[in-house]
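Bench notes, afternoon.
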Amino acid sequence: MLLCFAGNATLSQLKQLLAQKEHPVRLNKLEANNGLNQAAESLKIKYRFVLFYMSTCPHCQRFDPIIRKFIDHYGFKITAYTLNGQSLPSFANSEQPDLQTTNVFFARKGAQVPALFLLNTKNLHVYTVSIG
């Protein structure tokens, strides 16, 4: 069962993060800024994003350039899976997931798109960022 839901909350959150990065808030302490940068660098080493989408889903189409800009801007790695065999412009090298992969991320409840997860590459724990 594939469902396509509006991802308005995640879209607006990612847009806000990008806006903050493009127009950073000035911090009073340089150490605070360095601490944030170190935390982000640590996250990039340990985690990667995993995206599931369908190219025909209008919400996936809207999410596509935003998640690409976020990933490129912050330097995270991403694995993108297409559920209908066709890619979105930002993810031309997407793969089709096998049933086991889909079950791991969606806990056998059926895929809903767009779906964004954070995968800990050290212990393989999966954290849901947004579904639908």
